[in-house]
């Protein structure tokens, strides 16, 4: 298991029971017109409330040290405020993982949420939340993000290790969808939160989740001692992704993975043989055509 169950020191003390998530929250509200001082304070309070929720809530019974907490970035950009206390915009949520025996950190997933629409009042600073009942859209989104972070992080340390958290994320999505909240619909935009969790559960994409372990735990964690074997693992995953894209076109999960990994992929294959570079370029430009010029560096 990735996490320490218990670290007993000679003194008899033990690791503190820290929360699992360590999220850096940024709120951008510059696009909202004519903000008064009181309105600006709302976003200060909102950032504090969101940070406290993300970093203060426990989701597992596992024991984490401070250094083991899962790093995340949450960047929220508000573009509209159609009425008082109502804010509309988008968000980017990134999950970050350390690579063993290095100082390098890899972005596991980079999800763009195009429907981050919430209400927030001074009373909402309490951030009431219940996994089994829909309370409000903001806490549902944050709870969902937290469980998605746990899902992909645990998947990267053990094959399908994130299953318990994925089930809970799916439950939050269903509750919010039943409450008629935007960004959770099963119809319409297949890049929304519902489709992210659907993709993670979809049997057609199961090879991707299994590949997350191979990519991170076998390839990256051992890359300094076995770069040839590491590149083979990455190539195998790219081959699987290409096949999965034919079954599940425009998958938000696969897109979010490639958004996180495009530059890293170039770095991984930068010291490969000429033939490997050509094969990697062909695969990368096929699965992520919008970044073809970036991948072309491999064959120049």
Which helices and strands appear, and what pairs or packs with what?
Layout: E1 21-28, H1 37-56, E2 70-83, E3 86-98, E4 105-113, E5 118-119, H2 137-157, H3 163-178, H4 193-201, H5 206-220, H6 227-247, H7 252-269, H8 274-287, H9 292-295
Parallel strand pairs: 1-2
Antiparallel strand pairs: 2-3, 3-4, 3-5
Keywords: Signal
Signal peptide: 1-18
Pfam families: DUF4835
Protein architecture, described:
Helices cover 46% and strands 15% of the residues. The protein starts with 20 loop residues before the first strand and ends in a 5-residue tail after the last helix. The model is unreliable at 3-15 (pLDDT under 50). It is an alpha+beta fold and 300 residues long. The chain has a domain at 10-146. Helix 5 runs antiparallel to helix 6 (227-247). Strands 1, 2, 3, 4 and 5 form a 5-stranded mixed beta sheet that branches. The protein contains 9 helices and 5 strands, in the order βαββββαααααααα. Strand 1 (21-28), helix 1 and strand 2 form a beta-alpha-beta unit.
User: Helix segment count?
Assistant: 9
Bulk shape: globular
Secondary-structure element string: EHEEEEHHHHHHHH
The averaged pLDDT comes out at 93
User: What structural class do you assign from the helix and strand content?
Assistant: alpha+beta
Number of separate strands: 5
Rg for CA atoms: 20 Å
Describe the biggest sheet? 5 strands, mixed
Report the span from N to C terminus. Answer: 42 Å
Percent strand: 15-25%
Estimated helix fraction: 40-55%
List unreliable stretches of 5+ residues: 3-15
Organism: Emticicia aquatilis
Keywords: Signal
Protein name: DUF4835 domain-containing protein
């Amino acid at each position: 298991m990735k996490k320490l169950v218990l670290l007993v020191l000679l003194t008899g003390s033990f690791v503190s029971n820290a929360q699992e998530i360590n999220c850096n929250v940024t709120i951008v509200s510059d696009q909202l017109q004519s903000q008064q001082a009181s309105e600006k304070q709302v976003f200060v309070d909102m950032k504090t409330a969101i940070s406290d929720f993300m970093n203060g809530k426990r989701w597992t019974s596992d024991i984490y040290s401070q250094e083991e907490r899962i790093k995340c970035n949450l960047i929220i950009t508000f573009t509209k405020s159609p009425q008082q206390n109502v804010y509309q915009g988008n968000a980017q949520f990134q999950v970050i993982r350390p690579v063993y025996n290095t100082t390098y950190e890899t972005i596991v997933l980079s999800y763009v949420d195009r429907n981050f629409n919430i209400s927030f009042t001074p009373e909402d600073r309490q951030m009431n939340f219940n996994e089994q009942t829909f309370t409000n859209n903001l806490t549902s989104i944050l709870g969902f993000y937290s469980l998605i972070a746990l899902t992909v992080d645990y998947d990267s340390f053990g094959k399908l290790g994130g299953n318990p958290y994925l089930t809970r994320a799916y439950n939050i999505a269903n509750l919010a969808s039943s409450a008629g909240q935007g960004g959770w619909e099963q119809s319409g935009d297949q890049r929304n939160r519902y489709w992210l969790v659907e993709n993670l559960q979809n049997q057609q994409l199961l090879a991707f989740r299994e590949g997350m372990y191979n990519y991170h735990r076998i390839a990256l964690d051992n890359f300094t001692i076995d770069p040839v074997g590491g590149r083979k693992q990455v190539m195998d995953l790219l081959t699987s992704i290409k096949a999965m894209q034919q079954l599940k076109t425009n998958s938000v999960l696969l897109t979010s993975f490639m958004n996180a990994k495009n530059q890293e992929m170039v770095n991984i294959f930068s010291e490969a043989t000429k033939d490997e570079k050509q094969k990697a370029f062909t695969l990368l430009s096929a699965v992520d055509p919008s970044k073809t010029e970036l991948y072309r560096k491999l064959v120049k």
